[in-house]
Write a structure and sequence with these properties.
The chain is of the alpha+beta class. Helices cover 29% and strands 35% of the residues.
C-alpha cells in the first residue's frame, strides 16, 4: 500500500510538472471518458427504446386517423383536400404477441383489449396494409382472424380501373390472396394495385391490400380469378393499428332493420 501511495505521488508530480506527460494523460483520460459516456448513452437509449417506440406509434396512429378522416384523396396519390370535419376512424397502436400462418383460420394475438376500448367491430392494419379483423376480446388482449383465414372477406377495388370485387384467402400460400367477381371484359394487368373498396365496415377505403400477381378465367369465362401478392408479411408482423369506425354501430343497427 505504501508503494502504491508513493507511485501515485510520483505520477502526480510528473504529470503536474512535465507538459508532455500532462498532455498525454489528459488526452488518454478524455478518450476513456468518451468511451464510458458512449456506453452509458447507448444503454440509456436501449432502456427507453420501448417507451420511445410506443410514443411514435401513438403519433403515427393520430396522423393516420387524420389522413383517413379529415382529408379526402383526390386525383393523385399525394394530393388531399379538406372535407368533413368529424372523426370517422380512430386508430389504436398494438403489438402482435402471437400469430399463426399454417391453419385453416389463422389468428393474430394483440396486447390490447377491452380496457383499451377494443371490440369485435374493429379491423387490424399495419403500415403496409390490411392484416385482419378482431374476433374475440378479453380485458387485456384481442384475438383477430388474419387475412390468411377462410372466414376473412373484404370488399376491394382495382385502383387502375375502379372495378370492385371481393378478396379472400384460398388456403394455399401465406403471401397470396384471391380477388373474385371481376368480369372478363375488364382490363386486368399484372402489377395493378388492389385497395380496400367503399363498402368495408372494418377498414378505411383505399387502405392497401396488394397487387396483381397473376390471373385466369373461371366460371365459363365470365369472371376472372385474380391472384394478389399481399403487401403485409403476416409471419413477421410485429406492430399494428386497431381501426375503430366510430359510426359503425349506428350503421349496423340501421342496416339490420332490413334483415
Amino acid at each position: 500500500m505504501l508503494f502504491l501511495l508513493l507511485e501515485a505521488v510520483a505520477l502526480t508530480l510528473i504529470i503536474s510538472n512535465l507538459p508532455y506527460h500532462k498532455s498525454v494523460f489528459f488526452n488518454s483520460l478524455q478518450g476513456v471518458n468518451g468511451f464510458v459516456y458512449a456506453k452509458v448513452e447507448k444503454s440509456t437509449k436501449y432502456l427507453f427504446l420501448k417507451r420511445m417506440n410506443d410514443s411514435l406509434l401513438l403519433e403515427n396512429a393520430r396522423l393516420r386517423a387524420e389522413l383517413y378522416t379529415t382529408f379526402k384523396k383526390v386525383k393523385s396519390d399525394s394530393l388531399y383536400t379538406d372535407s368533413v370535419k368529424h372523426l370517422t376512424y380512430f386508430l389504436k397502436p398494438a403489438y402482435v404477441v402471437n400469430n399463426t400462418i399454417d391453419k385453416r383460420n389463422n389468428y393474430l394475438t394483440l396486447d390490447i383489449g377491452q380496457e383499451k376500448g377494443v371490440n369485435t367491430r374493429m379491423g387490424v392494419i399495419s403500415d403496409k396494409g390490411i392484416a385482419g379483423v378482431i374476433k374475440h376480446v378479453s380485458a387485456n388482449y384481442a384475438l383477430a382472424i388474419s387475412v390468411l383465414s377462410y372466414d376473412f372477406r373484404v370488399n376491394a377495388r382495382i385502383v387502375e380501373n375502379g372495378e370492385i370485387g371481393s378478396v379472400s384467402w384460398d388456403g394455399r400460400y401465406p403471401d397470396r390472396l384471391v380477388l373474385k367477381d371481376i368480369p372478363s371484359h375488364i382490363d386486368v394487368q399484372v402489377g395493378q394495385k388492389i385497395v380496400v373498396g367503399p363498402y368495408s365496415n372494418f377498414f378505411p377505403e383505399n387502405t392497401p391490400i396488394g397487387h396483381v400477381e397473376s390471373y385466369e378465367l373461371v366460371s365459363g369465362g365470365s369472371f376472372y380469378k385474380i391472384y394478389l401478392h399481399l403487401n403485409v408479411n403476416i409471419k413477421n408482423l410485429r406492430m399494428v393499428y386497431v381501426v375503430e369506425k366510430i359510426n359503425i354501430l349506428e350503421q349496423s343497427e340501421l342496416e339490420g332493420l332490413e334483415k
